[in-house]
Amino acid sequence: MTSRKRRLTSDGTSGKSKRGKFTLEKCDKPDTSLSGVVLVTGAGDVGQLGLGPDILEKSRPALVKLDHEIVDICAGGMHTVCLTREGKVITFGCNDEGALGRVTEGKEDAEFEPAEVELPGKVTQISAGDSHTAALLEDGRVFAWGTFRDSHGVMGLTPSGNQRSPYEIIKEQKIMKIASGADHIVFLNSYGEVYTCGCAEQGQLGRTSERFSDRSYRRNGGVSGKEQLDELLLPGKIRLNPYSKLHFENIWASTYGSFCKVADRDQVYVFGLNNFHQIGLKNLAPQFTPTLSKEFSKYKWKLITGGQHHTIALDTDGRVYAIGRREYGRLGLGKDCEDATELKMVEELKEKAVVNVASGSATSFAVTSEGELYAWGMGTNGQLGTGEEDDCELPTLVKSKQLEGKKAVRCSSGGQHSVFLVVNTVNNNKGDAD
């Protein structure tokens, strides 16, 4: 592997440069080989359940009636995104800032009803944050819509503001994978380089100083707030030691953090919020530049996912680990556990072959190879799907009429709702929401 000098253009993407030897031929994206139906649970007051305007909450998984076979799902903060077998994107939920990517104004209850987003090609991967959605097309282009926010309010998605319809957010790049935090997006390109855009206040972009991450800061009186905001919103390369010659082969994002796996090694570089050790560093201060996490570099990871103050990770052997804050039971380590300052195996799932995990703000989920769905953490709004609103300190098997004869394959959790992709093990693939 050799490093290459890249020139950053005014639009935040790389210009022409000498081609290096390293090329990322493939990337470990979510498996879309299985198609099934979508189940939802939790709060649906702004349409994020997709069950129509008369059903505003569910405490057990309920079926979303769709006319497509679904291969992937993402729960945003207050909206839901589905990917169909044909590579189309369907959205429902809050559209105040354009997170649905389609026109809902003047159409009664349009946010409560699933509908398709118009995109210029087949989509292979989706991601969603609090108020934005992103879609990776099979040709490597990325389109996004919605907005980012920081402590000062709405940032916009691009320098021109919110985007209520799909906008090509990073250009002149072949992107292999995308990942969304609450208010940032991470991109992995075909050269093994990582780009980011969005809110930088917790260090999650990995390319700004602590002072410059706050858009109210003025550098030497020479950079306006608008210019500073533009730099955050235009995708830029993460800040690495130019002599490190690092290339990456996988990326993940938590609510306020980012994780990048080095190609052909177990090393994981992290940046973002670490106030409960959730990105695996000893120093509790936010990390603004990519730093090797010795904790996360101990294992071979299949998937890393994180909420506000905790991270749930799945290794290649199907074991689940947790790190971070214990409140509400989100770690799944039991009632008497302490905050986890290092990765702890979730013992309740030790004998299970776990194939997928997810984290909401203060929730956690796991799906086993047998199709069982386990949930733990905050249950206040019914988002665990257990039928109760109690918190769960240990992984709890989710049972529902809509799970009978079905096998869970994927899970995703937002602020107050959760979404599950299930495939049928019986010959009937339709049903009514319970």
Key features?
Methylamine Dehydrogenase, Chain H, guanyl-nucleotide exchange factor activity, 4-stranded antiparallel β-sheet, 30 strands, 434 residues, 1 helix, guanine-nucleotide releasing factor, globular, disordered N terminus, RCC1-like domain-containing protein, disordered C terminus, mainly beta
Q: What does the model show?
A:
Residues 38-420 form the RCC1-like domain. GO terms for molecular function: guanyl-nucleotide exchange factor activity. Residues 1-23 are annotated as: Disordered. The protein has 434 residues and is mainly β. The protein has one domain (39-424): Methylamine Dehydrogenase, Chain H. 2% of the residues lie in helices and 39% in strands. The chain is built from one helix and 30 strands. The chain has a four-stranded antiparallel β-sheet with strand order 2-1-30-29, with no helix packed on it. Strands 3-4-5-6 form a four-stranded antiparallel β-sheet, with no helix packed on it. A four-stranded antiparallel β-sheet has the order 7-8-9-12, with no helix packed on it. A hairpin with a 2-residue loop joins strand 10 (148-150) and strand 11. The longest helix is centred in the middle third of the chain and has 9 residues, at 225-233. The model is unreliable at 1-12, 14-19 and 428-434 (pLDDT under 50).
